[in-house]
Protein: Four-helix bundle copper-binding protein
Organism: Halobacillus kuroshimensis
Amino acid sequence: MAHEKYENLIQKLHQCMEACSHCFDACLQEEDVQMMTSCIRLDRECADICGYLEQAIARNSPFTAELAGVCATICEACGEECQKHDHEHCRECAKACFECAEACRQIA
Amino acid sequence: MAHEKYENLIQKLHQCMEACSHCFDACLQEEDVQMMTSCIRLDRECADICGYLEQAIARNSPFTAELAGVCATICEACGEECQKHDHEHCRECAKACFECAEACRQIA
Amino acid sequence: MAHEKYENLIQKLHQCMEACSHCFDACLQEEDVQMMTSCIRLDRECADICGYLEQAIARNSPFTAELAGVCATICEACGEECQKHDHEHCRECAKACFECAEACRQIA
Amino acid sequence: MAHEKYENLIQKLHQCMEACSHCFDACLQEEDVQMMTSCIRLDRECADICGYLEQAIARNSPFTAELAGVCATICEACGEECQKHDHEHCRECAKACFECAEACRQIA
């Protein structure tokens, strides 16, 4: 079944969605929020597409490969922004983004 | 952190989203698809709201309780429909729906 | 048909989704972004639920009333936050939120 | 502003989301539902991505072009399936899908 074949990717997407969502929330509470605006924006883009792709894979969407290609691009952009910052939530988010991007590229 | 406090609920939502998405896909491939139309419709409603609430909790949404109340209602409706059918995907889906509904009710 | 009966609500939801999404984008570009963090967060919550409800109504979801109740609550919270600010995007967003909340309450 | 530059595309996406959502609902009520399973599946894929892209454009997402490319592919697939059927909801859906695909291609 599609959702079992892609179990590793679904897990990476889920971890990335959670890490980006937490980073979004934490960035909005940082004192230096002015420095975090790109991060806030990209966290949201990335959480949204990861959540979307998770569900698309689980329902055996015929468009998994195309969506995974876009998702990889967004994860990489978010990871690159997050790794510019020293906040722990950003570092964890960057790690989750790069791992998810790699898993997406394998099926894109 | 919000997303840790709710880790059990996020897990139940994720399992329910996956079970409903798989049931949606499998119902569309059943020979007796005419019998499965309510199931198909409710699987989609339930997968959508579970995916939505997962992400809302992960970003520390101020509206988690209200959304969890609606999600519980939808999970219960989907579980009740699914348990009318003998397909394994329906039985697994019903189980995931009822567990998720219970977890939602605890925070609603 | 459901989506015609609710055409006014769908229009209000769509306008509110657009206004909140634009306000989210514009707030992230304001110099006083520190002042706008609640607005950014609520803009996102509100755009997401309005987009969700639009689509739920269009597919004749059995849960339109329950979802509209939550949507009204979120629209009101977003409108109250936005009306604290003088930026034009906030004032337009507040207006769209209150109109949408009112339309939601009529079917909730 | 991004959402004004793309006003035509947002309108096409919105019309396509509504047409696909209505077609999804109507297909599930057809007597020959067995014939409509591909249509049901693709209606959902298409409504979801159109709703997603609408909101991404409205918030000035940096990934509009990539998402529009995938959206065009999904709209075309849904339009091709829908035009195989004589139901009025399918014919209207096919028309909305092809118009939306064309608008997406222009910015992809």
Notes: The longest helix of chain C spans residues 37-58. The helical segments of chain C are 2-5, 7-27, 37-58, 64-82, 88-107. The radius of gyration of chain C is 13 Å. The mean pLDDT of chain C is 95.
